[in-house]
Structures are given as structure tokens and as C-alpha cells.
Amino acid sequence: MKTKTVGKMLCIATTVAMMAQSASAEMVLKLGTVGRLGMPIGDAIDQALIPTLAEVSGGQMTIEPHYRGSLCGEQACGEQANQGLLQLWTSSTANFGNFGTALSIFDLPYLFKSVEDADRISSEWLAEQQCAIAAEEAGHVCLAVYSSGGFRQLGNALRPIHVPEDMEGIKWRVTASPIEYTLIENWGAVPVPYGWTQLYQGLQTGVVSGQYVATPWQHIAKLHEVAQYFTEINGSWSGNQLSMDKRQYDALSDQEREWLHAAADAFAQQVQDLDRQWVLDGETAIKAEIEEWYTPTEDEIALWRAGAIDAWINAAGTFDPATATRVLEEQGMTDFIAELQAAGAL
After folding, report:
1. Could you say which of 61, 135, 181, 197 would form a disulfide bridge with 57 (CB–CB 3.0 to 4.6 Å)?
2. Contact 65, 59 (CB under 8 A)
3. Could you read off the pLDDT of 259-302 as tens digits, one per residue?
């Protein structure tokens, strides 16, 4: 064999080896989510999480997104992450409860006074603290906690509702959440477990007459067409989370973890901004088409909060009372703290 030919073959072999090494160095993280493009979670993945990770890693780490539950539902995505079938997943903080209670504190009614308070406190310390607990307790490293729709608000098809006693006897749709069931019952309505996909028809036919759903979701489902009376009680925050399976996370290098957290931080900021606008747009659209959008006074909000105390009692053991107290204190909610303490909820 001629020397030039041998040299050429060695050159080709070296190039192929380098290409193979480069290809193996690229890490692709598969992400499962029920979010979709055109909504805050999907858009923040597309606009912030994916490009930021690619940029900070120089293309060595990339994300392969699977939207609309095409791979799995929320709980199933967490299970598949544990099995190594995917790396990243999103869910509500409530559905994260299938793996541990570390994020259950975010689901406590009236933990936050406003979306601004929720975003501020979560980003300053609460999410970091609870995610650290989740990593050890749940087998998932929580990278971000964020809102998906702001607060749940009341909408009904029968009459204006200003205070809890106005709900007396109304059949109110609830999910499988024990907290939601307790809230609706304590406010005087009749809790009726009912599916989301049938809710429009249920309100239209009177099978149920009210719902407790975040504003933009009510708008997307056009529930305001059949439920013309809304009450802005700002009860339960619609928390969501982005996580990675802990065993896969632990296998990353320090540099790779740094890249991942930089991308997650960019995602958290983007989804926060997009979500606030989503809530505003949904609220504005609903207000233009309904009979009444009622904002309770501070005294009336105190009545709504009082109905939430049993839900805190029922949630005992799923949250740290000292942490919850700190969150409430940072918002000046001393009266609510006193009520919870008097009831044995804190």
C-alpha cells in the first residue's frame, strides 16, 4: 500500500473518531410536559430553556421537548424520569405530591396574597429551600417552581357571589384535591367531583353550577359563556414545577449542572413574565363578556380565608409550620397567622 494512501486512510479514521467523540459528548435531555406552544409553559421552554442551555453549553447539552402530553401525563412523566426513559418533566405542584410532600406548601390556600408575592418569595428563597428537600425526599431535583395561571377564581352560572354564604347550596365542581373539596364545602357549596373536559356542558345543563379554576384556563375553556358571575378571591395559587430525576442529575458533572441551572433560571423568569400576561389577557377578555366580576373588600377576603383554615388542618404533616409562618409574616398576614395558630393549623 502506498504511503500517501495509508496517510489518507489514517486521516479519515482520525476525522471519524473525532466526529464520534464530538457526537458522544453532546448530551440530549428528553423533556416530557403537558404544556404546549402558544401557552406560557411551552413558550418558555421554547424561548428560554432550550436556547439558553444550548448557548451556555456551547451545544454540548440540548433539550428534546415533547409537548401536549405526547410522551406522558404529569405523574407518568415523573415515573418515566425515575426509570431513565426521560430526564426532565413538568407538573403541577399538586401532582408532584405523588412523589413527596416537599412542594405541598405551595398548594395551601391563602399562603400568598398576590401573584407578585408568590413570585417574589418563591424566587428569593422558598422554591430553593423546598426543592432541596424534594431532591432527598422525592428522588427528583426540582429546578424551578412557577405559576401556571395565577390564582384560582370562582365562576358560577346562578348569581353574584360576594361572601362565602352566597355559595350556600350551589353544586360546585371540584377536582380530586382534598384541599379543594374542603374549601368548597366550608364555603357553603356542595362539592361535586366532575371532569374538566365535561365542565362546559355540565355548567350549561346545570349538573354543576360553579367552578374554581385559574382565570386563563376558564377563558380557554370558554366557561364564561355559561358562567356569568365571577369572584376574585385569590385563594389557591396554581403552582407548577420543572424537575430532573435525581440519579441522572447526580451523574452530571459540576459544569453540566451549572449549565442546566442557568437554563432553568432563564426558563423560570420567562414563564413568570409570560404567565402574568396570560392571566391579564384572560381576565380582560372574561370581564368584557360577563354579568359581574366582583373583587371582595379586605373584610370580605377575611371571611374567605377563614373558610380555608380546615384545609390547612387537613394538610398537617405535609408542610413545615415554621416555613409557612415565615411566608405569611413576609406578607404582613399577622391576622391570618393568629387564626391558624388558634385553630391548631400552625
Report:
1. 61
2. no
3. 999 999 999 999 999 999 999 999 999 999 999 999 999 999 99
